[in-house]
Every structure is written in C-alpha cells, then in structure tokens.
Write a structure and sequence with these properties.
The chain is of the alpha/beta class. It is built from seven helices and ten strands. The structure holds 5-O-phosphono-beta-D-ribofuranosylamine.
C-alpha cells in the first residue's frame, strides 16, 4: 500500500526534490500528503508547488511558544493523512509528543557520519577537523538530536583543500541517493528497528547479478551501506 508521507522543510529542498523525482519515477511507493515549512521563503515550498504538492507555511515565530508550534505542526501532519514523516533540512527539534505520535516513522538526514559531527555544522566541523572520510546518515528520529537508529550511511572522501562548502556539495550528492533509498525501504515495509540497529529485509524477488555488479562499481568511488538498489545509484 502506498505510504502517505509528510515532508518537513526549512530551506532549499534539494533532498525533497530528489525524493519527489524518485516517487514520480515509480521507485518509491509513497505519496507526499503535505510539505510543511517553518520558513515562508523556503525554496522547498516552490519545488513542492511546481509538482502540485500541498505546501504549507507554519512560521514558528507566529506561535507563543515551542509547545504551541509543535502542536500545530503535528495537527497539520495528521490532517494531511500522513503515516510517516520525512525531515528534509527541517531546522527545528521535534517535541517528544510529535515523536511519540510517529515512533519509528520519522526519518532524518544528517550531513555527517553519525555519531561524529552532530548538530547544525556537520560538514564544516568535519572539514575543520581534518577527517579524510566524511559522509551522510539517514536515521530514525528519537528524542535526542541526530541520535536515532541508523538506516543507511554513505561515505565520501574529504580532501585537504576542502572547505565547508566543497565538502557539503560532495556529501549532498550522496544525500540525494541515500534519502530516497531509505524512504523506499520504509515505504516497502522493509525496515525493522531492533534497539539501536535497523534490519533491512530482502527485496521481494531478490536482486540480480547485473545490479550487484553496478553496486560494486559504485562502491569503488563511494561506500554506501546497506548498498543502494537499482534506481538509486
Ligand atoms: C542537508 O545537508 C541535510 O543533510 C541537512 O540540511 C540540508 C538540507 O538541504 N539536514 P536541502 O534543503 O535538502 O537542500
């Protein structure tokens, strides 16, 4: 059954764009019921509208406190009929009530190899630290920031001359692959959380040899685990 999903955004929406394109191409069995932004000028809203998706602004500053904003956000997501939530560059922490309402049904993407470099400066912190491998993580959301069980990670090289922007761009290219892949797995009911671990059930029908070969070629440049499946690399 097609999974109804709400996407929460605050900014550019390039991950939203990638997810929309994979849904439209039939590679994710999901439909976006609402795109909600806490910022009125988020480019993500234009992207949503261009694809005929319901886009809504809930400016957090219009609410008396965090609880009131979170209650309105939860109501908007529920009213849309969503059964899962995707955080795509959404720059607010969710209230425990929100997380409890969608337990193990909220995905986030973080531009670092968690648990390294949590927080809002993941790429800059990694570049400044001098790591030689950086990356991105898709994880389930729990009450702590950038903490929940990990669904998929992708590693990319970090180069000596990288600054935050150049490293972020290299990471973002992989974000656009692993986030749709993670959502496809969630929509297909293939993810099961066991404590801190996420188990990925095999695809119905299994993969073929050509696909495995292509994945190996991809792995030579970038390490992604669990491996991307056909249509996502
Ligand atoms: C991405 O780097 C994501 O990892 C982080 O915020 C950024 C959002 O980019 N959480 P976009 O709005 O999807 O282009």
């Amino acid at each position: 059954m097609t999974l109804p999903v709400a996407v929460l955004v605050s900014g550019t929406g390039s991950n939203l764009q990638s997810i929309i394109e994979h849904i439209e191409a039939g590679r994710i069995d999901a439909r976006i019921t609402a795109v909600v932004s806490n910022k009125a000028d988020a480019l993500a809203l234009d992207r949503a509208r261009k694809h005929g998706l319901p886009a809504r602004v809930l400016p957090h500053g219009d609410f008396p406190d965090r609880a009131a904003f979170d209650a309105a956000l939860l109501a908007a997501v529920r009213e849309s009929g969503a059964r899962a939530v995707v955080l795509a560059g959404f720059m607010r922490l969710l209230a425990p009530e929100f997380i409890a309402a969608f337990r193990e049904r909220i995905l986030n993407i973080h531009p670092a190899l968690l648990p390294s470099f949590p927080g809002i400066r993941g790429q800059a912190d990694a570049a400044a630290y001098g790591v030689t491998i950086a990356g991105a993580t898709v994880h389930f959301v729990d009450e702590k920031m950038d903490n929940g069980p990990i669904v998929i990670q992708a590693a990319v090289p970090a180069l000596p001359d990288d600054d935050a922007a150049s490293l972020a761009a290299r990471i973002l290219a992989m974000e656009h692959r692993i986030y749709p892949q993670a959502l496809a797995w969630l929509a297909a009911g293939r993810l099961r959380v066991e404590g801190r671990k996420v188990r990925l059930a095999p695809a119905r029908g299994g993969g073929d040899a050509a696909e495995a070969g292509a994945r190996a070629a991809e792995g030579a440049a970038y390490l992604v685990n669990p491996p991307l499946e056909a249509g996502f690399f």
